[in-house]
Design goal:
The complex is a heterodimer of chains A (171) and B (317). In chain A, 18% of the residues lie in helices and 14% in strands. Chain A is α+β, with helices and mostly antiparallel strands and 171 residues long. The longest helix of chain A is centred in the N-terminal third of the chain and has 12 residues. By secondary structure, chain B is mostly helical. The longest helix of chain B is centred in the N-terminal third of the chain and has 35 residues. The chains are: A alpha+beta (171), B mainly alpha (317). Chains A and B meet through helix 1 of A and helix 10 of B.
Chain lengths: 171, 317
């Protein structure tokens, strides 16, 4: 009986406590930079598209919401002809980001993507591609991986070693 | 002629105020529970979220009013009406202020006890007519719970009746001119409060609906305004219990400076908020605990209270 009275009094005192609720549209909660929200395509520090249209993101995607078509420019550099993400299917798992070898596809801390028309949730390359490098400001895939030029293969220049044959590492 | 007009104003005024208060309680309870749980509650629609009330009512009225094909149609429709009628009828005997009362029955308290017993039919019939095992379990629990708590609800009031020497609520209020009955009848007040909570099946005595065990108990199958009537009926019941506590134990309309109706309102609001606070803080007991608490603790306590009060009243005169 006494404990019931004590708990009633204790609950009453909560009237003077601080509210836990975050009044969302007025007060935005803090979201960490690695929050998994809206997906973007980034550019490298030189302003070129990072995406090399390797399809790994589309393969990794568990709900098949990414579709793209690879093509090449005149120098033989691969890039996506179109790149389409259907956000009405996307589950924001981040596997595409993990699969991407060039840090091109990234997830951002933005979740406010509500739409009245379902078709508006299909984002094309124009909507996905941003002008900056995203979370990895200094990363350029070809600086790290090397690039074959006319008459000289990868690793054939001075003070370079030929690239590792990944198949020789197989057990 | 003019007395008829005053009477009509009383009837419709009390009906209007009671229904408004009960409707507003749906919103007030959500806000107050939020206050005591470090939340805000519904605060979006209108200033302080007050228009949430309107939105809820519109929703209740526009929802599909569905009667399940396996239900007993006539009883199913009758049950929600019974609780509204009995609870609203109980308000006829409450003296809100001198002259503000629908009927001045000399058996007012007995009428209230009768009406609250009739209210049990609503819950039991709803549980039976729904033809659903959870509803039936809820109805079953309600029958046992309300019948057993009815007994010492009546007994706890007899102390007040002994001191005041009348079943008439107006006479009882006027007998509290010197000292409020909560002082000589503190045990009676506590028992009546607990029994009142059980009668309106509010948390912690909400075993008939017990949403974590029985979906929603006796009103699982109800939708739209029929469900709304159960809900509003429950809130009118809360108001009724608060109003009766004020009239029987806390001097009714009496108080300094302010007009009688204002005093009655202030005291009633206090007890309504207390009941909401109790809902926010106490857990629901197990069913056998509920029954043994009622029969083995509260019943002897109220009998003892009755005997002691009777002895003192006899000795004094």
């Amino acid at each position: 009986m006494l404990s019931a009275l004590k708990s009633i009094w204790g609950v009453f005192l909560h009237a003077f406590h601080k509210r836990e609720t975050v009044l969302y549209p007025e007060v935005k909660p803090y979201l960490p930079p690695r929050y998994r929200g809206r997906i973007i395509l980034t550019r490298d520090p030189d302003g070129e598209e990072r995406c090399v249209a390797c399809y790994l993101c589309a393969v990794a995607c568990p709900v098949d919401c990414i579709s793209l078509q690879a093509t090449e420019d005149e120098s033989g550099r691969r890039y996506p002809e179109f790149f389409r993400i259907n956000f009405s299917r996307c589950i924001f798992c981040g596997l595409c980001e993990e699969a991407c070898p060039t840090y091109a596809i990234q997830l951002t801390p933005d979740f406010e993507m509500g739409e009245y028309n379902r078709n508006n949730l299909v984002y094309e390359k124009e909507q996905l591609l941003i002008s900056g490098p995203g979370k990895y400001p200094d990363y350029n895939f070809y600086r790290v991986a090397g690039l074959a030029i006319a008459g000289k293969g990868k690793g054939a220049a001075e003070r370079e070693q030929p690239p590792v044959d990944v198949r020789s590492l197989l057990p | 002629m003019s007395s008829t007009v005053i009477h009509l104003i009383n009837v419709f005024g009390i009906l209007f105020v009671v229904l408004t208060v009960a409707g507003a309680l749906v919103f007030v309870e959500r806000r107050m529970l939020a206050l005591w749980q470090d939340r805000y509650g519904p605060n979006r629609a209108g200033p302080f979220g007050i228009l949430q009330l309107v939105a809820d009512v519109i929703k209740l009225f526009t929802k599909e009013d569905w009667i399940p094909p396996f239900a007993d149609r006539f009883v199913f429709v009758l049950a929600p009406a019974v609780i509204m009628i009995t609870v609203l009828l109980s308000f006829t005997i409450v003296p809100f202020a001198p002259g503000v009362q629908v009927v001045n029955l000399n058996i007012g308290l007995l009428f209230f006890l009768a009406m609250s017993s009739m209210g049990v039919y609503s819950v039991v019939l709803a549980g039976w007519a729904s033809n659903n095992k959870y509803s039936l379990l809820g109805g079953l629990r309600a029958a046992a719970q309300m019948l057993s708590y009815e007994i010492f609800m009546g007994l706890s009031l007899m102390g007040v009746v002994l001191i005041a020497g009348s079943f008439d609520l107006r006479a009882i209020v006027e007998a509290q001119k010197g000292v409020w009955f909560v002082v000589p009848q503190f045990v009676g007040f506590v028992v009546f409060m607990i029994a009142g909570l059980a009668e309106t099946h509010r948390v912690p005595f909400d075993l008939p609906e017990a949403d974590s065990e029985l979906i929603a108990g006796y009103h699982s199958e109800y939708s739209a305004m029929k469900f709304g009537m159960f809900m509003v009926g429950e809130y009118i019941g809360v108001t009724l219990v608060s109003v009766l506590i004020v009239a029987l134990f806390f001097g009714g309309w009496m108080g300094p400076f302010l007009p009688p109706l204002v005093w009655f309102g202030i005291k009633t609001v206090f007890f309504i908020l207390l009941i909401i606070l109790i809902r926010g803080s106490l857990p629901r007991p197990r069913y056998d605990q509920l029954m043994s608490y009622g029969w083995k603790f509260l019943l002897p306590l109220s009998l003892l209270n009755l005997v002691v009060t009777g002895g003192i009243v006899l000795a004094l005169g």
